[in-house]
Design a protein that fits this description.
alpha+beta; OB fold (Dihydrolipoamide Acetyltransferase, E2P); 3 domains; RuvA_2-like; DNA damage
Length: 224
Amino acid sequence: MIGRIAGRIEYKGEDHLLIDVRGVGYVVYCSDRVLAGLPGPGEAAALYTDLMVREDLLQLYGFPTLVEKEWFRLLMTVQGVGAKASLAILGTLGPDGVSRAIALGDGTAIKAAKGIGPKTAQRVVNELKDKAPMVMAMGAGPTASPGDDVLEDPSPAPAARRAPAPRPAPAAAPAQSEALSALSNLGYAPGEAAGAVAQAAGDLPEATTAELIRAALKLLAPKG
């Protein structure tokens, strides 16, 4: 499995780019939003990747963050949503926008993506609403960035870097703490996030994390 690519951009197409990694060129498909955020040909770039394997096809899809990669994988678990549709949704809303839309049950926002109809949009919301808190709790996470030596031609080749050991998953936290963490990761100030979660918890004392997040986001949404 190829989980990350770092190298020099050879060219950028309409829906993909070619990255040269020490003499080997990799075609990586990305959303238009991700492509627009990458530097031009000749510059260094890095992306987290997901390799799709089919009988007659191998395709790499690239993402600047692990959160966006996780949403890509989750969106494709929904019937009728393939890789192209997943990229369209992420390209239109971004990972934070997808998190908000699904947490709030906002099928209209999902429908704004090219090629996504109302039935598919509602199916996305219904099937993924309980998984949104898990992804939101991941936070912004690291952004893929090329190392200083990506554009160099080292001789001899350096020893392969050992990937850092994964951190153990934190113990389950109360619903209010998880909801507060998710809202903070979406960029809300600690004070307003805490106030909204507290009010939501007061109104819904038996609420799950997902229910608290939805209720708090509604309280934080602009009025009028």
